[in-house]
From TrEMBL:
<feature type="compositionally biased region" description="Low complexity">
    <location>
        <begin position="20"/>
        <end position="37"/>
    </location>
</feature>
<feature type="domain" description="UBC core">
    <location>
        <begin position="59"/>
        <end position="206"/>
    </location>
</feature>
<dbReference type="Pfam" id="PF00179">
    <property type="entry name" value="UQ_con"/>
</dbReference>
<feature type="region of interest" description="Disordered">
    <location>
        <begin position="1"/>
        <end position="37"/>
    </location>
</feature>
<dbReference type="InterPro" id="IPR050113">
    <property type="entry name" value="Ub_conjugating_enzyme"/>
</dbReference>
<protein>
    <submittedName>
        <fullName>Ubiquitinconjugating enzyme subfamily protein</fullName>
    </submittedName>
</protein>
<dbReference type="InterPro" id="IPR016135">
    <property type="entry name" value="UBQ-conjugating_enzyme/RWD"/>
</dbReference>
<dbReference type="InterPro" id="IPR000608">
    <property type="entry name" value="UBC"/>
</dbReference>
Length: 259
């Protein structure tokens, strides 16, 4: 009589989740033992998730630092930003307008980078009052008009700054955030809107030396101290500069980056 090969006779059974599970019989026990490839995959998934969560703040910081370093290559002229002294994910900035109705305007703003960045869009709010159809009374700008679906790494912070700068040159009034400004802009006689825009510019110049207490970007009248500082910076322009890491509170990590 032919002997039976139990290992070959044991069928393979498809378990939950389409994992191929093989049942064999332990010689000392009649209880089947299951080996699942899916269990190993789930274990690896847990490890990957743990690593991602642990190092996510550092990867996010690195992404923002790289974008900040590359800003001079992409950002429009007349736009300057500086990270807050408290957080790398809040930038204080200013826009100098050179042409159009808002010519000579100096408009300060705050750009906030969310925890989900680069998968979520930043937000921008003007600190200086801006009379514009697409700027709310609170200074907020609706970025979904230009970025209805934010795509990580394709859409970057410099894209936001470029878009907002264009708002002062190519004025639109559809779906406005400031209904009064939109009505004046669309009126048959837009002279009232022009007067309001000019007043907005004058007010920005009048308040240019008024600095919010939490702002890292501060304005002061030119004096000999700034002249000396300017000369010192020009002398050191070929040396490495340090960037502070804000990931861990109370810890200042220096990352040397050559500009």
């Amino acid at each position: 009589m032919e002997e039976r090969d139990d290992a070959q006779a044991t069928p393979a059974v498809e378990g939950p989740g389409n994992d191929s599970t093989t049942h064999t019989t332990n010689p000392s026990s009649s209880t089947p033992t299951a080996y699942s490839a899916g269990a190993a995959e789930k274990g690896q998934l847990k490890i990957d998730t743990f690593v991602e969560e642990k190092y996510a703040p550092y990867l996010r910081e690195y992404t923002v630092l790289i974008e900040y370093k590359q800003l001079p290559q992409h950002v429009p002229s007349g736009v300057f930003v500086l990270p807050s002294l408290q957080s790398l994910f809040e930038w204080h900035g200013v826009m100098f307008i050179r042409q159009g109705l808002y010519k000579k305007g100096v408009f300060k703003f705050v750009l906030s980078i969310p925890e989900a960045y680069p998968d979520a869009a930043p937000t921008l709010r003007f600190v200086t009052p801006v009379f514009h159809p697409l700027v709310s009374a609170q200074g907020e700008v609706d970025l979904t008009r230009a970025f209805p679906r934010w795509v990580a790494y394709r859409d970057q912070i410099w894209c936001v700054l470029a878009h907002v700068k264009k708002l002062f040159y190519h004025i639109q009034a559809d779906n406005p955030l400031n209904a009064d400004a939109a009505a004046k802009f669309l009126a048959a006689d837009a002279s009232e809107f022009e007067q309001s825009a000019v007043k907005c510019v004058e007010d920005s110049l009048k308040d240019v030396y008024i600095n919010p207490t939490d702002s890292s970007l501060r304005f002061a009248e030119w004096n000999q101290h700034f002249e000396n500082l300017r000369n010192y910076i020009l002398e050191k322009e070929d040396e490495n500069e340090g960037i502070i890491s804000w990931v861990s509170k109370g810890v200042s990590k220096i990352i040397n980056i050559r500009y």
